[in-house]
Amino acid sequence: MEIFFHKYHGTGNDFIILDNRDHRYEKLTASAICGLCDRRTGIGADGLMMLESAEGYDFRMLYFNTDGKPGSMCGNGGRCLVAFAYEIGIQQQHYRFIASDGPHAAERLEDGRIRLHMIDVTGITASSGATVMNTGSPHYVQFVEDVSLINVFDAGRTVRYSPAFADQGINVNFVARTKKGITIRTYERGVEDETYSCGTGATACAIASTHENGHHAVSVQVKGGELEVEFTRINKETISDIRLIGPATHVFTGTTSIYV
Q1: Average model confidence (pLDDT) across the chain
Q2: Catalytic residue among 34, 37, 80, 198
């Protein structure tokens, strides 16, 4: 099978993107996706996305982890798919698309960044001194003094495979407060390693960093750049009007052939 692909990244979180509106990639297997995402023998990426047609929406977002399995919502991926939609001819300022966690709206800003509307968050809980919530993907948020001192692979893997989370897995974030906002590092399930950025993780960490009701805008520094998260805290456990803002950068376009 010949594959015509695009490579994008959102603050270092990189993705292979395929236009599947004609269903040409429906037979792409999990092992093939895993091979395409391999950084030594494939194209290399933190995940693979397909853009598909969806009645009532501008497009459908299908996301796969590097292990080839369907993944939950990816905030950086969602922004990149909006930028890709514009590139392939769906050229507008406002978008509405459907993803694994439901409908999303997005906007192209004048400076080139994408503002992505995330799902509302409810049911925030505590676990062993950390905060747990679902921002489209499940996240464990632990505050530390200095994220640079954390062995994210080992510490993240310990939490991700702990008895409380081993069955479904969880993304693990380490967060430190800064004068400007927060800085974070994230271990992602599915990738099973630290990534340069995690959009749903940045969202979870921004929410966990505030306790007062009302509107908030939090600057989030990740290994691959800077994101901004806006939201309104209704009460201790309910967050609405969540927006993830950041770049979506085209890296390159190419073709490759694989056996399926």
Answers
A1: 97
A2: 198
- 37, 74, 80, 205: the catalytic one is 74
Q: Which CATH class is domain 125-246?
A: alpha beta
Is 74 part of the annotated catalytic residue set? yes
Radius of gyration of the chain, Cα coordinates, nearest whole angstrom:
18
37 catalytic? Reply is no
Question: Rounded to whole angstroms, how far apart are CA atoms 132 and 254?
Answer: 39
The phi and psi torsions of 214 (rounded to 5 degrees) equal 115, -175
Domains 2-117+248-257 and 125-246 share a fold: yes
Q: Which sequence spans correspond to the domains of the chain? A: 2-117+248-257, 125-246
CATH class of 2-117+248-257: alpha beta
Instruction: Say if pTM beats, i.e. exceeds, 0.85.
Output: yes
* Per-residue model confidence as pLDDT tens digits over 113-157: 999 999 999 999 998 899 999 999 999 999 999 999 999 999 999
